Amino acid sequence: MKIAFFDRDGTIIEDYLDHEWTRIERPIFIEGSINTLKEVIKKGYKIILITNQYIINEGYITIDQYHDINNQMINELKVQGVELLDVFYCPHGKDEGCTCIKPETGMIMKAIYKYPEIRLEECFMIGDSIVDIELAINMGIKGFGIGIGSNYKQENIYQLNTIKDLPTYI
């Protein structure tokens, strides 16, 4: 099974400063993200979200607020014809030392455990943060960084201006 591992905040929906998330009540989709998800699915990938949500344990939002935003996003994607295979999130604070916060590999390892038919050599990670690229490197898979500069001159790491550029690379 080919998996496209997508970051959530700043990649599919708008991201905010940590303290601003407290007042966010609904997800705002980034321009082109829904169409890009559709294109990725057409190319034979299933989509799994891999999202750091340290703002839960750091006290900016509650677990219920996280689930509310996430469920709204999932429901809107379904309405638009986009089915996610799964969502993995890390609620741990940045200083908790967990093994799931990106760039640690825990969330992808959980996905592989749950879906043993995943073929990592055919997967990729995309996100708007250095930790997304570092996760791709740590897993040995293709990585796409959206608007984060070209700090990584490694094989299989690509820089995109916007999420709309992704379909031309896969």
Automatic annotation (TrEMBL):
Its main location: cytoplasm. Coiled coil: none annotated. Mg(2+) binds at D7, D9, D128. Its cofactor is Mg(2+); Zn(2+). GO terms for biological process: carbohydrate metabolic process. Its EC number is 3.1.3.-. It is found in: Cytoplasm. The keyword Lipoprotein does not apply. The keyword rRNA-binding does not apply. Keywords: Carbohydrate metabolism, Cytoplasm, Hydrolase, Magnesium, Metal-binding, Plasmid, Zinc. It comes from the Bacteria. NCBIfam families: HAD-SF-IIIA, Histidinol-ppas. Monomer. This is D,D-heptose 1,7-bisphosphate phosphatase. It comes from Priestia megaterium (strain ATCC 14581 / DSM 32 / CCUG 1817 / JCM 2506 / NBRC 15308 / NCIMB 9376 / NCTC 10342 / NRRL B-14308 / VKM B-512 / Ford 19).
